[in-house]
Amino acid sequence: xxxxxxxxxxxxxxxxxxxxxxxxxxxxxxxxxxxxxxxxxxxxxxxxxxxxxxxxxxxxxxxxxxxxxxxxxxxxxxxxxxxxxxxxxxxxxxx
Length: 95
Hints:
six-stranded antiparallel sheet, elongated, S-adenosyl-L-methionine-dependent methyltransferases
């Protein structure tokens, strides 16, 4: 019986580091891309390559966030004005 208890305890101790490493690998930190357009600084937040939020900081004005409206499309809404949709039409495309 003691041998069985020791084996179970050793198996438990061996599996704990693996579970911690798996939890860390599942939630990587978001990638932040910072660029400047005119007088605005734009920060794009991506998780596993998926763009989920944009922070726009105009010069001399308070920053605001654009977030996904439904989680799948490229329709963004302002987080402080959720009723205002941001259009994302494709006017021209070259191949």
